[in-house]
Amino acid sequence: MKLLLWLTFKMKIKKIGENIYEIPKTGKMNVPVRIFASEKILEKIKRDKSIEQGINVACLPGIYGQSIMMPDAHQGYGFPVGGVAAFDVEKGIISPGGIGFDINCGVKLLISDLDRKDVEPKIKKLMNELFDNIPCGVGKDSDLRLSDEDFDEVLNTGLDWALKKKYAVKDDLDRCEENGHMKTADATKISPRARKRGRRQLGTLGAGNHFVDVLYVEEIYDKEIAKIFGIQKEGQIAAMIHSGSRGLGHQTCSDYLRKMEDEFSEIVSKLPEKDLAYAPTDSHLAKDYLGAMSAAANYGWCNRQMIAFKVRKSFDNIFGKVKLDSIYDIAHNIAKVEEYKINGEMKKVYVHRKGATRAFGPGHKEVPKVYRDVGQPILLPGSMGTASYILVGTDKAVNETFSSTAHGAGRVMSRHKASNTFSEEKVKKELEEKNIYLKSASKAGIVQEAPQVYKDIEDVAEVSDSVGIGRKVVKLIPIGVING
Amino acid sequence: MKYKYLQHTADAKFKAFGKDIDEVFVNSALAMFNILGDTSAVKSKKNKKIKINSGNNEQLLYDFLEELLFLFETEKLFLHDVKDLKIGKDFSLTATIVGDDLGNYSLEGDIKAVTYNDMKISKTNKGYEAVVVVDI
Questions:
Q1: Which CATH number fits domain B3-135: 1.10.760.10, 3.55.10.10, 3.30.565.10, 3.40.50.720?
Q2: Positive or negative CA dihedral for A133, A326, A174, A401?
Q3: Which residue in A44, A104, A139, A440 has its CB near the most CB atoms, within 10 A?
Q4: Contact A250 B110 (CB under 8 A)
Q5: What amino acid positions of A are annotated as catalytic residues?
């Protein structure tokens, strides 16, 4: 019966524009599902349960517009990864599963004044230096020991703490989503277990798909905007950091899923998946979760900043004093209160972005002043050994996607299958042939993150660009990769 | 067979077997830790007694696996085996976790969290089985 239902859903995917598909509202759905994908990508998305999960999200109370799926969508738990959903702040819901276990998993991009000609001859030395300075892999702790007061300050004030401690400069805060400090944070809503897990992990990369890349600018699509972002020429060297809020964020998500399951057991028992558990926005638990999620997000920004601090130090150690400025830092697992015109009326909503990136266009007050005329930079990391993109937010995304776009390539192959398909030697050799030097904390990190296990980042960037929800500005190619 | 891994695009999914629920819990723990490394190679140098209370069997399995992850991250306890696991009628669990400091081994992956996704404990004609997805 379930299969039959599923097949009927599949039949109903309608093409409504170039690279835009829709599943009309039927049955218990409150809104349609909108999928941004090319034909090729849609076929891949159809292979797992992501569309079924997108439909489940469309059934949740207080959802506006559409349940949105990005070109990098794949199966998650509860909500699909690569999903965006906006719920009324008063009559809607907030759901930890709509944000993800790794709260404020995200990307920070730094740009240097070095050219690839300066860096390539010393790339091995640089990557070894980075690998030695940044704790990465499973169970690797930070050398930082925080007092209780400091830890609270990290959670409550994010990058303000990092600035005070001189791990950040003012410019890092200016060029960071939320300036790296969500004001809704409340450290008292983080459980002792989550605190304990996060205590020794600030400034650590973690494992899995988390990485530090050294890349060069290969192609500039929009010279004017690139220049405003700090990119002058092809060959310019950048560093990209992908990590999140580590054990603290994971535990916070687990804690609140359980709290919501206990408190709203009636609601949860009727959901198709327990990971869709939510709190109605007018409940005290919704407020508690918002405080905890925001605190975990602040921790996430501090974590990437601490890594950036070490990246700068490593570059200095190899090349002498190097300019390595922030371009931007974005979250791709987060919920935000934002305002949109819905049915002619301005409404406040909780936009849940799970494996999706905020993409504000020109003029938005939350875009840093230096970028406000052109729009917010969007960082779209590729898989290991493939390109990454910098996009720019657009006005169009406001109406199409609650100002959101994709967050990366999106997996197509399970880690288990990857382990059985690829060998460490083969992946390393392939990268070597592309002149990419890889340092990994584990063998699994190499084979499970092989470039072939992801969708093609070029296709994902192309869909975002062609639909107009995030325009291509710069393409970057890696020459060094550190993988947890 | 104690457990087997199932296909899952982004995360890791396994099915654990047992003649009773207690054994399913032990084998679920082994399945989860073998994602991280080879538990059979881990020495029995550390012991840790745990006690958990939950509302039903699925919650209890979730809490049990989550507790193991918590010990892994905060006490660096890499599991070799689970001894004397007992589940009470009120969904309480006691067990002794046996293992060693994770720093002594090379690890092959990370687990961010246990999830409820597709989680199911069911009775079969041979005993019981559990399906678990972990976020990695």
A1: 3.55.10.10
A2: negative
A3: A104
A4: no
A5: 407
The CATH fold of domain A2-483: tRNA-splicing ligase RtcB (3.90.1860)
Measured CA to CA, the distance from residue A69 to residue A44 in angstroms comes to 13
Report the predicted TM-score, pTM, of the whole model to 2 decimal places: 0.95
Token pair listed for B98: 């046996």
B136 and A139 in contact by Cβ < 8 A? no
Complex ipTM value: 0.88
Tokens of A400: 């199409």
- Up-side HSE of residue A424: CA atoms within 13 Å toward CB? 9
| Whole-number Cα distances in Å, B97 to A359, B72, B103 | 47, 11, 17
> Whole-angstrom Cα distance, residue A251 to residue A269?
22
Nearest CA in chain A to B102: A139
> Could you tell me the residue ranges of all domains in chain A?
2-483
List of residues 6+ apart from A173 with CB closer than 8 A? A159, A160, A163, A179, A180, A181
Question: What is the rounded distance in angstroms from the CA atom of residue B123 to the CA atom of residue B130?
Answer: 9
Q: Is B75 on the interface with A (CB under 8 A)?
A: no
pLDDT digits (tens, 9 = 90+) for A100-148: 999 999 999 999 999 999 999 999 999 999 999 999 988 889 999 899 9
CA A301 to chain B, closest CA, distance in angstroms equals 18
Beta-carbon pairs below 8 A across chains A and B: 107
Residue A10 has a pLDDT of: 57
Q: B64 and chain A: CB distance < 8 Å anywhere?
A: no
B133 in contact with chain A, both atoms CB, cutoff 8 A: yes
Helix (H, G, I), strand (E, B) or coil at A211: strand
